């Protein structure tokens, strides 16, 4: 039986906690041998989303087989220099010294740094907190814009939903990819993402604008990125001329419609290749006629 202990800080984000907790409780339901516990400095813990949680106050016991996870909390770009009690910081250090695994989600990385667990290690956090983490813990090696970073027995992940990816990664390491895939299916989440994927995919990176016509075209491309999509058809969707669409799309996203579609195809192909598909099979699955274009896009500098 593997004990997974969640160490909660006041203002905890519910999804930072619930995402990985659901992974391990689902793993337990599937017979993989997990027990999930929760603790905090006080029995009642305020959450960023409103509802208070009632948990135990016992610190996680050190164990070479156990896992301690520190979910993130509402930071707003400002993180206190001390978020843990002396007992909690000592428990994290003792757990790692005993050979146990320690992980964080989002701003939880600051708690790991406070316990001295980031010194000399690669780590990450939410993209809005990466610079602050690097300044606060100069001996840490902060990796920007990735989903999660494993470094020995210390793992850190980006914001919010990336905690699910981190937890699925830990299940994969312990039980293999088929177990993680079974949990992902049970949770109805997207297939496990690799840690070095960017925190914002193609769709998120290019949606921060206010041009309705371009959003309508992006909706079509997002839903049908595997298909040939003539510019004339996309322009008709936006109710503008082809020339105007190209100008608007490039001005708002930095890409032509074709480059945007290629980016989506490449992103989905990388998921498939990471799951074991050949380049040729991945190319066909995402709509490329053959693998030559996919290889060309994969070799292009980011």
UniProtKB/TrEMBL annotation:
> Domain named HTH araC/xylS-type: which ranges?
215-302
Please indicate which superkingdom the organism of origin belongs to.
Answer: Bacteria
Q: Keyword Transcription: yes or no?
A: yes
The molecule here is called DJ-1/PfpI family protein
Coiled-coil region: none
Question: Which SUPFAM superfamilies has this protein been placed in?
Answer: Class I glutamine amidotransferase-like, Homeodomain-like
Q: Which InterPro entries match?
A: Class_I_gatase-like, DJ-1/PfpI, Homeodomain-like_sf, HTH_AraC, INH-QAR
Assigned keywords, A-Z: Transcription, Transcription regulation
């Amino acid at each position: 039986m593997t004990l997974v202990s969640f160490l909660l800080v006041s203002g905890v984000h519910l999804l930072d906690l619930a995402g990985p907790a659901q992974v391990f409780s689902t793993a337990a339901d599937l017979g993989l041998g997990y027990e999930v516990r929760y603790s905090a400095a006080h029995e009642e813990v305020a959450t960023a989303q409103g509802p208070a949680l009632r948990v135990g106050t016992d610190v996680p016991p050190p164990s070479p087989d156990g896992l301690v996870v520190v979910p993130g909390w509402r930071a707003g770009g400002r993180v206190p220099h001390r978020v843990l009690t002396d007992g909690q910081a000592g428990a994290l250090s003792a757990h790692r010294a005993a050979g146990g695994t320690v992980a964080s989600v989002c701003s939880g990385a600051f708690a790991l740094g406070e316990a001295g667990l980031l010194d000399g290690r690669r780590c990450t956090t939410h993209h809005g907190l990466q610079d602050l983490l690097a300044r606060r813990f100069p001996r840490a090696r902060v990796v920007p814009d990735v989903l999660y970073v494993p470094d020995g027995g210390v793992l850190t992940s980006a914001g919010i939903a990336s905690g699910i990816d981190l937890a699925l990664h830990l299940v994969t390491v312990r039980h293999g990819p088929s177990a993680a895939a079974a949990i992902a299916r049970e949770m109805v989440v997207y297939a496990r993402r690799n840690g070095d994927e960017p925190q914002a995919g193609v769709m998120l990176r290019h949606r921060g604008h206010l041009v309705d016509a371009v959003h309508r075209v992006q909706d079509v491309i997002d839903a049908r990125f595997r298909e040939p999509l003539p510019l004339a058809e996309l322009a008709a969707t936006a109710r503008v001329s082809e020339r105007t669409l190209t100008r608007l799309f490039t001005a708002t996203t930095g890409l032509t419609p074709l480059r945007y579609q290629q980016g989506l195809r490449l992103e989905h192909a990388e998921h498939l290749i990471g799951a074991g598909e050949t380049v040729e099979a991945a190319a066909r699955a995402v709509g490329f006629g053959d693998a030559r274009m996919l290889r060309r896009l994969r070799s292009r500098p980011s």
